[in-house]
Amino acid sequence: MDKNTITRFAPSPTGPMHIGNARTALFSYLYARKMEGKFYFRIEDTDRERYDAKSEGQILDNLDWLGIKFDKFGEDTRGYLIQSERLDKYRQIANELVEKGIAYKCYCTKQRLEELRKKQSAEGKPTIYDRRCCDATNPNDSSEFVVRLKIPQDEIIEFNDLVRGKISFAGKDLDDSVLLKSDGFPTYHLAAAVDDHEMGVTHVLRAEEWLSSTPKHIVIYKAMDWNTPEFGHFSLILGADKTKLSKRHGATSVRELRDQGYLPEALVNFMALLGWNPKSEEELFTLSELEDRFDLEGINRAPAVFDIEKLNYFNRLYIAKSENKKLIDLLRINTEKTSLETAEKIVELVKQRMDKLSDFNKLSHYFFTPPKIITEDLVFIKSTKSSAKKGLEIAAKELEKAKKIDKLELKSAFESAVLRNKISNGDLFWSLRFTLTGEKKSPPPEEIIPIIGRQEALERINSAVELLK
């Protein structure tokens, strides 16, 4: 355990928070908490073309909903960095790198760069910058310029990835990436390295798509004589078809999953197991338990598969074990129209059948409003209207004379009536179930009647009998 450990989550506000970003935030948070260190947050908003003004607030809201709390950084009340507010700092570092000979100004036009890429592609070569401006002393292509990183061509850049082990890159195979754009905004390579240094980040944990960026960041760290953090890169999350998870696989953002009725506890539990192995048969973990159990040694190198059925399984378990009053609030049940006592009974019955909160209306509408009945559906398979009518009439008589509207008493009364009257179970139980709910799948009648009440149940039965005449 190292209490000096500092991790961070640094999203770009360019759209909804993807499940992959949320997992990165979770893993970084869990590692910091396990080590009793710090977990910082910052906004990387230097991609102005894709910048979405609403996204920052949505990201913060989603983190809060998931229970992922970051530690305050800096002196202002906000507690996190925003890169677009730090342009002078990045320009300063870019200039220092140029002075040190680790970066250079590139005056190549967009047209020339596009022609270069086309030529390289046609020749089957990697599309990387050809270093035309690397040693230029009198550039005359344009007054505008970008600052590029000057990768040492004869070096092998190595580091030990916390997930993947020893990784090495040959400098000659790396592109001299842009550090500072012509509009004065930094690219990810410069801003991320500068901010991680200033925030004292000791462990950079991120998705594997950034693996090839790591040697470039290491070059910057060494040039500036900064401590180089440790790096760990998580594998991709794949869809069920084993391709990279995307919108075509369905809901993939935290907001979409929230709106569909997934609980944060379920999503956190699910995400934790997307690439992490607890080294036991356990699979249910609260966030607090994960803070104690999580380790980087349990991270798998192989891609994780987003299995919606597994998420449904976790969500079903967490809904079923949730307190009824909590679910009433989440479901926004109007307890002025429906008493709190009745609402709790409805939720207690229905929550055992819910995969998502959005299932509630489908599973409970008949408690609040009499269902629309299709006459043909009142009749049990291979039975007749007259048999269904008889079954409902018998059920009504049993209900009228019942001394107590109780699940066990009603069930016993209905079963005895079936035997006495020599009718099929379906003619009473099926017809009664559909009469009360309008659904082919629902809780049994003896569980529904105590909630809607004797009088409401009798009115629904009488209406169904009229349809069957």
CATH superfamily of the largest domain, called what? Answer: HUPs
CATH topology of the largest domain: Rossmann fold
The average pLDDT score comes to 94
**With helices defined by DSSP (H or I, 4 residues minimum), what is the helix count?**
18
- The count of strands amounts to 12
Query: What's the number of domains?
Result: 5
Spatial arrangement of strands, main beta sheet: 1-2-3
Low-confidence stretches: none
Structural class determined from secondary elements: mainly alpha
Shape: elongated
Q: How much is the radius of gyration in Å?
A: 31 Å
- Helix percent reads 40-55%
CATH architecture of the largest domain: 3-Layer(aba) Sandwich
Major β-sheet profile? 3 strands, parallel
CATH class of the largest domain: Alpha Beta
Beta fraction: 5-15%
Order of helices and strands: EHEHEHEHEEEEHEHEEHHHEHHHHHHHHH
Query: Could you tell me how far the N terminus lies from the C terminus, measured between alpha carbons in angstroms?
Result: 77 Å
